[in-house]
């Protein structure tokens, strides 16, 4: 299994973040780009029927952020970490509310085992830093001709930990970690994932509520797009429909779309594709509510699916259900993957990763991929509040693939999905 610290916070394809560019030459996608300003009459009826949901978002409050910091300090004590450095990224957002792009200029926060947060940022960014932070107001600025790592070292010395243990949040770039290590030669730098993951992998009721809202919205968007499909559409046309639908709801989102034989690759293809009746289409993506993301995959067909597609769909649905039934506190993550994989192998699509070629699932929250992973060999156990994708699939090379994905969350005595399962290929939304 992968190191738990090595999670991936980025989406699978850069294409997902540049749909408007890729679709610029297509009339339907041009319509999608203009969707926020378009009149209702310009939208397909199913998309026009979508309701705004942005007003339902309840942001994370400062009381919860203070509890997160207290939990981090408790874990720092347990793991012998004196100071935690968190750079730009989702953990900075999690603890402080800041949204900051990771660049060559150092911005971050230093959290001592006891005491208040100290922010380090370029002096010219002081105002924007103060504007964004939700906790504390101690901001130390460095000028463009100064060494930011020397400033970090001064702050750590002021905290009394120049020879202590510095925990480095695991997504901090190496060049930045090295700069801090060089500036504090008598300190010991360690991986801080027991603190960051120890806090973030367990979701609070407020976090779960945001994720449920985002996933419910994605399900509604997918159904509206499915009802608007027409023969001859390209994958970019369908992505344009997705963009229009999300614009209607008020939550930002997108989706990878693949058609026909390209669904046989779990992450699809960038090759040109056209929708033909009777062939499968896979939507895979999500939206965000106060930063918390959904992740959902639906396999649908325009028109009548073949008997083989129906059969494969039913096997994948059974595998997803088997994983859900096994998941509960104390069960290993390996066992959850194994339950789904056994269904697929017993149906003749094994052994191992032959046709179900990827792990069952990944953790999810502020990042679409985060701790932990439902994969063979992972002996970590489930705990209440953990969240994962439950996404089995069967992929037949050069023919088609079927994948179903919903977000599973662990309860006190079992597990549940945040959205209803797709019941059949003929009626994928019930």
TrEMBL record:
Signal as UniProt keyword: yes
Creatinase N-terminal domain span: 68-202
UniProt xrefs under InterPro entries: Creatin/AminoP/Spt16_N, Creatinase/aminopeptidase-like, Creatinase_N, Pept_M24, Peptidase_M24B, TAT_signal
Keywords of this entry: Signal
Superkingdom to which the source organism belongs: Bacteria
A Pfam family it matches: Peptidase_M24
Residue ranges of every copy of the Peptidase M24 domain listed in the record: 210-412
PANTHER family for this protein: AMINOPEPTIDASE, AMINOPEPTIDASE YPDF
Identification of the protein by name: Xaa-Pro peptidase family protein
Classification of source organism: Bacteria, Pseudomonadati, Pseudomonadota, Gammaproteobacteria, Lysobacterales
